[in-house]
């Protein structure tokens, strides 16, 4: 176990993170377990958006914990109330339920989130597509139940006909912001950027409270600033794509950036002996099947990292590396070659490595 190190992986509803110094968040709704608590910073943690959140703070008076917890809970509830597809009365759910073409009001933060997602979608040539919701639901990875059999091609084609980034518009004006769709069945799913969005908002909350040394995470997205309680930079350990929770693949110093990992090896189900990943390729309408099993991205914000990692996972290793080179992205990719794993990284990512 690595002191002062955060473990990072991605799995919806099934996270394995070691955040701060020694706390392990395990899957299947297990409670967090703690060891060597004397060396820990102030830690506030819990569940949100179907996953775990954790805020680790150094140099903060423990008497502030109750006030901070209330503020954190309120911020996460606000985010969930905006972008959840599981809450029928969230802002996003109401937009998805609406079948007209009149602009629908959203917050400035939510509008900025959609703009970020659309930009990454365009740069990945549609590989990261927040309108892929009908396909996500069809394959059983949305609010609807898992299918009992593989969808027919006709069903896939029908769902694909209800997708497309070109059908979604963000309107920014002095008096407000709106989302607009020109396809009645358009269903926006912001889960590919939601964890990063919530993480960035927690980081902003810490800044507003005058806290300068923190590590915050929601699910597989992490942001850090400053130093831990031992006076050392916060570090993140990227987990190997195996079932061994504490197997280290690489360790990075975020240097105030955001990081996110997307993987196809955790969140899946099997039907008739076939394994289906939760990552859907918008071009085919089907779960990805290539050898890339994990993509980690470091960006100025966790939201950007969260969007890029999904797009790279859809593209596969060669296209992902080409895109990283084209846009100067800090990426770390893991592919499965038979029973072994092979890693690739961009020069920009190497700059964040601890003892490369």
Essential attributes:
8-stranded antiparallel sheet; alpha+beta; globular; 20 strands; 9 helices; 356 residues
Account of the protein in words:
The chain is an alpha+beta fold and about 350 residues long. Helix content is about 30%, strand content about 30%. The chain has 9 helices and 20 strands. It has an 8-stranded antiparallel beta sheet with strand order 4-5-9-10-13-18-19-20. β2 (about 15-20) and β3 form a beta hairpin.
SSE order and pairing:
Elements: E1 5-8, E2 17-19, E3 23-25, E4 42-48, E5 51-57, H1 65-83, H2 91-97, E6 104-106, H3 108-123, H4 133-138, H5 153-160, E7 168-173, E8 176-181, H6 191-208, E9 214-218, E10 221-225, E11 235-239, E12 248-253, E13 258-263, E14 268-271, E15 274-277, E16 280-281, E17 286-287, E18 292-299, H7 302-315, H8 317-327, E19 330-337, E20 340-345, H9 347-350
Parallel strand pairs: 1-11
Antiparallel strand pairs: 2-3, 4-5, 5-9, 6-8, 7-8, 9-10, 10-13, 11-12, 13-18, 14-15, 16-17, 18-19, 19-20
Helix pairs in contact: 1-6, 3-7, 6-7, 7-8
Total beta strand runs: 20
**Shape designation:** globular
Low-confidence stretches: 1-39, 267-271
The radius of gyration is: 20 Å
Bin the helical content.
25-40%
- Report, as a whole number of angstroms, the end-to-end distance: 19 Å
Output the strand order for the largest sheet. Answer: 4-5-9-10-13-18-19-20
- Number of separate helices: 9
Largest sheet: 8 strands, antiparallel
Instruction: Encode the helix/strand succession as letters.
Output: EEEEEHHEHHHEEHEEEEEEEEEEHHEEH
Mean pLDDT: 84
Structural class: alpha+beta
- The amount of beta strand, in percent, is 25-35%
């Amino acid at each position: 176990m690595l002191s002062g190190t955060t473990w990072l992986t991605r799995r919806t509803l099934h996270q394995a993170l070691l955040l701060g110094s020694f706390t392990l968040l395990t899957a299947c709704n297990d409670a967090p377990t703690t060891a060597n608590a004397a060396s820990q910073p102030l830690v506030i943690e819990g569940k949100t958006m179907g996953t775990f959140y954790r805020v680790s703070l150094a140099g903060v008076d423990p008497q502030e914990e109750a006030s901070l917890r209330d503020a954190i809970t309120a911020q996460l509830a606000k985010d969930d109330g905006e972008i959840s597809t599981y809450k029928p009365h969230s802002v996003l759910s109401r937009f998805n339920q609406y079948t007209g073409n009149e602009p629908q009001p959203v917050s400035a933060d939510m509008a900025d989130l959609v703009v970020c997602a659309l930009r990454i979608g365009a740069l990945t040539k549609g590989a990261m597509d927040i309108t892929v919701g009908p396909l996500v639901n069809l394959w059983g990875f949305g609010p609807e139940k898992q299918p009992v059999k593989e969808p027919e091609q006709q069903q896939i084609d029908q769902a694909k006909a209800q997708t497309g980034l070109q059908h979604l518009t963000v309107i920014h004006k002095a008096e407000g912001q709106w989302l607009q769709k020109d396809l009645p069945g358009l269903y926006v799913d912001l889960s590919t950027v939601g964890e990063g969005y919530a993480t960035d908002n927690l980081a902003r909350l810490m800044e507003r409270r005058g806290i300068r040394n923190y590590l915050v995470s929601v699910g597989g997205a992490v942001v850090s600033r400053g130093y831990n309680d031992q006076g050392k930079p916060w570090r993140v350990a990227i987990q190997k794509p195996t079932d061994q929770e504490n197997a280290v693949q690489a360790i990075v110093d975020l240097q105030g950036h955001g990081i996110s990992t997307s993987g196809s090896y955790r969140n899946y189900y099997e039907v008739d002996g076939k394994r289906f990943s939760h990552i859907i390729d918008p071009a085919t309408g089907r779960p990805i099947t290539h050898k890339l099993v994990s993509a980690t991205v470091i960006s100025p914000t966790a939201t950007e990292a969260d969007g890029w990692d999904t797009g790279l996972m859809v593209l596969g290793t060669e296209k992902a590396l080409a895109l990283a080179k084209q846009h100067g992205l800090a990426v770390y990719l893991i592919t499965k070659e038979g029973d072994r794993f092979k890693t690739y990284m961009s020069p920009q990512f190497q700059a964040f490595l601890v003892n490369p």
